[in-house]
Amino acid sequence: xxxxxxxxxxxxxxxxxxxxxxxxxxxxxxxxxxxxxxxxxxxxxxxxxxxxxxxxxxxxxxxxxxxxxxxxxxxxxxxxxxxxxxxxxxxxxxxxxxxxxxxxxxxxxxxxxxxxxxxxxxxxxxxxxxxxxxxxxxxxxxxxxxxxxxxxxxxx
Length: 156
Known about the structure:
Layout: E1 10-14, H1 16-23, H2 27-39, E2 40-45, H3 46-55, H4 61-70, E3 73-74, H5 78-90, H6 92-95, H7 103-116, E4 119-122, H8 125-128, E5 137-140, H9 150-153
Parallel strand pairs: 1-2, 1-4, 2-3, 4-5
Helix pairs in contact: 1-2, 5-7
């Protein structure tokens, strides 16, 4: 289904916040996932998978498992770990443990997008929008934006 009828197809790696909003039936998140699936392939990191399982509310478990049946996590291997380490070293203000206690997991998520040559889609504007990261294409969405899809339509 991805890219059906379109000239160009993209790959997107979804960060934790997007999926949480989708599972909590946020209309903007649902619209965004529908749109991204029309223009490309979506995936998630195994780190995001772990974070979702931790943050999942009991009544969200079934929807969560169904989501991950549809969007299986990308396994993190040695090359991705090396890329994460290089991001932590090169961008300590974004991924360093001192300023960002979530830096290492964020680095692994970013490295997964880099390894997959995917666009990282995130609500984490606090960390990912701070510094341009040359190795990645990041779409950091302001959570209070009315229309999350418009950020992507402007690029097509």
